Amino acid sequence: MSISELSQDLIEEILCRVPAISLKQLRSTCKRWNSLFNDKRFARKHFDKAAKQSLVVMLTKNYRICLLDVNLNETPSIEGRGELRRVSISKVFHCDGLLIYINKGDTMMVVWNPFMGKIRWFQHIDRDKTHYDYVLGSYQDDKSGNTSYKVLRYMSWGSKQKLEICELYSSSWRILDVTTDCRFYGESRVSLKGKTYWIAFDEEKRQLDMVSFDYTTERFRSRMSLPYQFPIVSYQTLALSGVREEKLSVLLQLRDTSRKEIWVTNKIDETTQVLSWNKVLTLDYPDLGRCFLTGLSFLFDEENRKIVCCERRMSEDDYYEAADWVYIVGEDNKVTQLVFGESSIYTPGLYPYLFGYVPSLVQIEHPRRKR
């Protein structure tokens, strides 16, 4: 029996398990398959069932978003593979294969699926919203039964969090009547299972923990503990990351020690009530984490037990100059490093951002027509 003789249902069941990167090579095979890849229902089915292939992406000091070729085998290596898009970007966030980014100058919010080559220039940003951060999450639409997306924006500085939200299909912002007893700390935020997770600062207890936002209820969930319940002054370095779209991971370093610890949670799904942490790696590399609490981002590879991380490091010869550094560090503390681009004038608060991008067929929603 040839492939053309297989039923449509069977073809879907086969293709929805093929990783997205491999699936892209099949788009030109026939018109029926190509139309299937553009089907919203199949895109969601594929996202839920296919094996995830993660690419390493970095937002650089030059406001560019670049793809890195990272080899984590016996002879680790790092190499830049070029820009994903030739546009200046100041902030970026990833959820389900979609990127939401803010252009340099903070004048426009854009939703983009690099894998599918689809983009939507979402809306202009008002001048009074230029200090806001933007994140993206998913929810189940009661009317259509499909998975849809919302954008949450919030003040990125100050003790009081002002929160606004909008559905991608409406482009209309609503002020959320919710209060938080903490503020989001640093640049560490991660999307997992449609929810957004932050490291948060409890101003009353003066310590750090985690908080997540549920886009279905539009409420924050119960606070979650970090591996250590220490005051904020106890930390030298702290960063949050995701692991294979299943778990959360933190890289932390306490003050008065050069050791960095990698902790990973249990698998997280809709039924998860309690997080448990497991220390999986201890590194002793003094040069890593020079940017203190907020300036480092990382990815942890469970299979190879290595981390890939990046930070801005100030020059030892000139305090006013800095460069982006990317590292691979493993259990043996052997380090592979790459200086990404040339040194430039150090800008406080501007850090490189490393994240795992998981290609998907998820489509970008557009405003619905009014009936």
From TrEMBL:
InterPro entries: F-box-assoc_dom_typ1 (IPR006527), F-box-assoc_interact_dom (IPR017451), F-box_dom (IPR001810), SCF_F-box_component (IPR050796). Residues 1-46 form the F-box domain. Pfam families: F-box (PF00646), FBA_1 (PF07734). It comes from the Eukaryota. NCBIfam families: F_box_assoc_1 (TIGR01640). This is F-box domain. It comes from Arabidopsis thaliana x Arabidopsis arenosa. The lineage of its organism: Eukaryota, Viridiplantae, Streptophyta, Embryophyta, Tracheophyta.
